[in-house]
Amino acid sequence: MAGVAYIGVGSNVGDAFENCLQGMRAVIDNERATFVALSSLYRTSPVSPVVQSDFLNCALKIAWRGTPRELLSFLQEVEAALGRDRGVRFGPRTLDLDILFFDDLVLDTPGLTIPHPRLHQRKFALVPCLEIDPGLVHPRFGRPLAEYLRELGDEQKIAPFGKVPADRIGSAKAGDAPEGGGG
To answer: Closest Cα to residue 98, out of 155, 55, 135, 141?
Structure first.
């Protein structure tokens, strides 16, 4: 039985658009994953004490045939293959793939917290998730994500960047991806 996962996708190093596309392709092309939905891409300000460039972010919704821990391990393999350097906490990222939700699971284990522990504090995660499903409720707190978004101030910047056409993801399984330009 497959669980439904929302994965935050982001990059702010090199060609961020291409990095995000490659990460999404790798996820969707895995035999344990089935594409469900993809948000638009957004240009977002970093939420970090580290000075760095803006990010491109989106959310990818998949069905995953495996455990959340297996998904985390797989996502970390994809990040590493695309040059992710974990040397600076909250620093620049070639590719960042985070499990935001896995069904309605609430999980606190060493190395894996679901939902993502700072999801409700980050526009770059909230806006793409709400684009996919405006009725999403945070399983830990029982509040609609839209309420958290309304409570965040203007310090975190987010602007639409564009939709990713299905053919740019490179998988027939992504046939329902949003249409439109990449930037």
So the answer is: 55
The one catalytic residue among 93, 108, 118, 140: 93
Query: Does residue 86 register a pLDDT over 70?
Result: no
End-to-end CA gap in the chain: 36
Q: Check if 32 is active-site.
A: no
Pairing mode, if any, of strands 96-102 and 112-114? unpaired
The pTM score is 0.90
CATH number at residue 51: 3.30.70.560
Active site residue 15: no
d(CA 109, CA 69): 10
pLDDT in tens, 11-36: 999 999 999 999 999 999 999 999 99
Q: What is the distance of C-alpha 168 from the center of its chain?
A: 17
Domain that holds residue 131: 3-174
Backbone angles phi, psi at 177, to 5 degrees: -65, 150
